[in-house]
Amino acid sequence: MTQEKTVLAEAGERRRDAERTRTELLDVATEEFADRGYSGARVDEIAARTRTTKRMIYYYFGGKEQLYLAVLERAYSEIRAAERTADVDHLDPVAAVRRLAEVTFDHHEAHPAFIKLVGVENAQHAKHMNHVARLVDLNSSAVALLGGVLDRGRDEGVFRDDVDALDVHMMISSFCFFRVANRHTWGALFDRDLLAPDRREHYRTMLGDLVTGYLRK
Question: Average pLDDT over the chain, rounded to whole?
Fold first, then answer.
């Protein structure tokens, strides 16, 4: 291997190492902020769990707040990416809406830390989220995707004309969020586990029926 190729290979490996380190820091920080909130989370603890240093975290992110904002941005990016890969353009409008609802259902169940992070940020009146302009664009894309499906449904005469895409997004999100966020209190009050495997398909179908039932003429 020539010296130039050796230098390029070493540079590529350093980039990969940096990406792995950054990903690991985000993974651990997500758990820390989700479990302890913004105020309770400790950068020292994140450093200890990733076997790195506080100085290294500041090198990658700049500080605790910037790390928290990076966690939030990645969390929302992941669910928006899942929606984009749903590939609903080839589905009829009713099936497409049901599919988008199922994507949110599956994502929220698989990412309880996301639910906790949203709760943390709501408790703080979204004061940190307001500093991440990209979050507005990310989440606007979800409403635009849903809006396109609703437009197709109206054009085909299967959906009501007075439906707002953001309202439908709220309906889907609220069902999926409640199911995960309120699992333990619901179980204590009613002795029913909302995440019980034997009721999963029941709730998944129920969500689709609720949303499409609301939309139909």
Answer: 91
- Other C-beta atoms closer than 10 Å to the C-beta of 171 total 16
CB 216 within 8 A of CB 159: yes
Whose CA is closest to 69, among 19, 164, 135? 135
Separation of alpha carbons 29 and 35, rounded Å: 10
pLDDT in tens, 21-48: 899 999 999 999 999 999 999 999 999 9
CB 169 within 8 A of CB 140: no
pTM of this structure: 0.89
**Which contacts (CB < 8 Å, 24+ apart) does range 102-105 have?**
102/204, 102/207, 102/208, 104/79, 104/172, 104/173, 104/176, 105/175, 105/176, 105/179, 105/203, 105/204, 105/207
pLDDT tens-place string over residues 116-173 = 999 999 999 998 888 777 888 888 889 999 999 999 999 999 999 999 999 999 999 9
Residues 6+ apart with CB under 8 A from 115: 108, 177, 180, 181
Distance in angstroms (rounded) separating the CA atoms of residues 134 and 175: 25
Residue 216 pairs in a beta bridge with 159
